[in-house]
Each structure stands twice: as structure tokens, then as C-alpha cells.
């Protein structure tokens, strides 16, 4: 492996780790948005069922 | 000032009395230390002489693990019969509690060192004699800093479930600079007879001072009944 | 939403700047004579290293902030910055090792610089990993804060201590003006990345916390209704 290949290896590692984490956070944020809108849907339907 | 010193004296006395009666911690710690030395001895030393400066590193492994056990146990004492709550209710300076625990830990580690070091010298045929004074001074400075960090975090994690492994994980990285400096100073001494440099000793003293002060100031915040 | 647009703009700009600086490396930056092309790792390595310190400093300040104000906002900031510090330090370590492998033939030497990166990495990886082991959120925040302060206090001592290691390969690089410009250019996207990731993680933690609080409130609410229906006083 020559110098240039090591250079590319280093930058690929950098991009994958740094931007990879960013991508991970983005995916988690999307999941969070979905979870938040689910929580906003009224949970009330459960209560009437108990009144029997 | 005198009052604080008296308090510290009383607390240390209490801890050491409890220890003297049960002799549980010191026994465990010494046996652990010897086990570590034996394992390393069989791996490294069987059949060939081990260099003098490797002594520092091997002994550090024994001191590190034995030390963490000590820190854990001296804090564990306070979990019986709500002892810690009693301690906190008493009109004690919190810093005094820290210093007392630190001194108890240092006494236990000194006992560990006194037993384990000769065992290592025996098993590895270390020739420490040429440089005993440097060895003792350098290692003592290192152990004081290590114990300051250990005492603080032992208190911090004593109320959690997984203490032992967690404590080691917290304390080892923080103590690495001490291990680096002490082993390198001793390496130079054993290889070329060069006495520990002022810079090296100053770094160790700096570590000790920083962590003694930080631990002393923050100790109150981590105590929880 | 205004915030989302700002967020998208920020990340688009960061990505574009990153791409631009990579292009700069390929077409503009001269290759160093003695070390060859692998020296260009430096333009990523140094800004990432500096930003690791920035993240460590944020952990330090946020830890003090928590111990002072005892709000979870500070704890979330500390843990977010801690994760970014560990992440960036991973890149410093790996790029340093790759550079070393090419320059001196070994993936690892106990040289001061590499050892310093290793100890720093261990300090902050431990910070990230121990947190889940402590169940009570307040306890976790206190222990993390104490560790966050201790770790940062340790950094100068680690720096001093590694000077005692044999430095077999001192590397001093004389920078031409074009190289200095490249280096300065690289600082911008890397710093934006660091601060952006800390903020993104912090915001996410806040949302998680609020969502959990809502769930707990909903459960408590449902419990109350069950008791009411069963004839017990709510």
C-alpha cells in the first residue's frame, strides 16, 4: 500500500465515523418525531373500555 | 484546624479498628495482589529473568487491582446499619470524611505493598536493592494520587449495584498518567542509573495536588446515604 | 418550522464546505516533500484533535453547570459533548495510527502523541460507557459530572506525562502558505460538525426526556381512571 492509499483510508475513516454518527442522529430524530406524534394521539380510548 | 484533625484521627481509628477486628479486607487484598504477581510471574518470568524496570509495571498491576478492592471495601463499611447516614448527620466537616477515608485506604495499600513487593522480588528475582529509595519515593507519590482518585469515586459509586468493575473503569484511565511517569522514571533508573528527574517528580506531585484538592472539594457532593 | 430550515441549512453548508475542502486537498494543496502524500492526513487530524478538546471542555463546563444548577439540561449537554469527544478522539487515534503505519511501518508505537490520544480516548469512552450502568438519573448525573471534571483536569497531566515516553519519531512540519490556508479552511467544516453534533445530540436528549415525561403522565392518568372506576378515591 502506498502513501496515497493510506491517505484515502484515513479520510474514509474520518468521513464514515463523523458523518456516520450524524446520520445516526438524524435517523433517531426521525424516529423521535414519529414517537412524539403517536403520543399526541389521545390515549383516552383505553379508559372507556375499563368502565364496563 | 485541630478539631478537624481530631475528627480525621477518630474516623481513621474507627475504620482501622473495624478492619483489625475482621481482617477481611486486608486478607482479600493481599491474596489478590499475590495472585496477580503469580499469574504474571508464570507468564513472564518462568525460565527467564525479568528486567528490573518491569518490576514497576508488574507491581502497578497488583497495586491497581488491590487498591480498587481497598477503595470499594472502605466505602462498603458505611453501608451497614445506615452508618453513612449517621456519619453525615454528625457535625463533621465533609472534607474530613474524605481525608479519613483516604488515609484508611493508604494504610491498607501500604500493607498490600509491604507484602506483595517482597513476594514479587522473590518470584521475579528483581534487583531493586540498587534503587530502593527512588522506587519507594516514586511509587509512594504515585499511590497517593491514585488513592485520592479512588477514594472519591468509591464514594460516588458506592450506592450503585455494580461497584467493583465500575470503580476500576472510572479510576484506571484517570490514573494512567501516574503509571506512565512512574514506570518511565524507574525504567531510566534501572537502565542507565539515572535518578528520577525533577520534572518527573514535579509531574507526580502536580497530579497528587490536583486530585487531592478536587476530590476534597467535590467529596461532599458524591456522598449519598 | 423555522428551526428545521435553519438545521437543514446548517448541515447542507457543513457538508458542502467539507466537500470543498476535500477538493481543495486534491487540486490545490501541495504535497510535502519529505513525507509525501500521506502527510495530508494532517489537515483532517489536527482540526479533529482541536475539536476533541473543544468537546472535552464543553463536558467540563456542563459538568460544573450540573453540579451548580442541578438541572438535567446540563447533564444532557455534558453527555452529548462526551459522546462527541469520544467520537472525535476515535478519529484522531485512527488517523494518527494510519499515518504512523505509513510513515514508520508500525500501526502502533508508544510515542507521546499516540499515547496521549489513547489515554484521552479511554477517558471519554469510559465516560460514555459507564453512564447506563447507573440507574438513578440524579446519581448518574452527579457521578458523570464529577468524572467529567476529573477527566478534564487530568488532560494537562496526561500531556506532561507522555513527554517521558521515548519519542522515537519527532515530526515537525514546516508549512508553506498554501498549506496554512488549507489547514485554516479545514477548521471550518470540522468545527461546524463538532458543534452541530453536540447540539443535535443535546436536542435529541431533551426530546427523549419530554417524551418519557409525557408517557409517565399518561400512565399516571390511566392509573387514576382505573382507581376511579373501581370506586377508590382518586
Give the strand tally of chain A: 0
Approximate helicity band of chain B: over 70%
Q: What is the helix tally of chain B?
A: 8
Taken from the alpha-carbon principal axes, the silhouette of chain B is globular
Mean of residue pLDDT of chain B?
85
Oligomerization state: heterotrimer
Shape of chain A: rod-shaped
User: What is the terminal separation of chain A in angstroms?
Assistant: 75 Å
Determine the fraction of residues in helical runs of chain A and give it as a percent range: over 70%
Largest interface: A-C, 29 and 41 residues
User: What proportion of the residues of chain A form beta strands (DSSP E)?
Assistant: under 5%
Describe what you observe in this structure.
The complex is a heterotrimer of chains A (52), B (225) and C (234). Chain A is mainly α and 52 residues long. In chain A, 83% of the residues lie in helices and 0% in strands. Chain A has a domain at 3-37. Chain A is built from two helices and no strands. Chain A is rod-shaped, with a radius of gyration of 23 Å. Chain A starts with a helix and ends with a helix. Chain C has 234 residues and is mostly helical. Chain C has one domain (2-167, 176-229). Chain C is elongated. The longest helix of chain C is centred in the C-terminal third of the chain and has 53 residues, at 177-229. Chains in contact: A-C, B-C.
Summarize the structure.
The complex is a heterotrimer of chains A (52), B (225) and C (234). Chain A has 52 residues and is mainly α.
Topology (SSEs and partners):
The complex is a heterotrimer of chains A (52), B (225) and C (234).
Chain A: H1 3-40, H2 46-50
Chain B: H1 2-22, H2 24-45, H3 54-76, H4 83-89, H5 94-124, H6 132-157, H7 163-192, H8 198-222
Chain C: H1 2-27, H2 42-69, H3 72-104, H4 112-130, H5 137-162, H6 177-229
Name a few traits of the molecule.
heterotrimer, B: 225 residues, mainly alpha, 0% strand, C: 234 residues, 79% helix
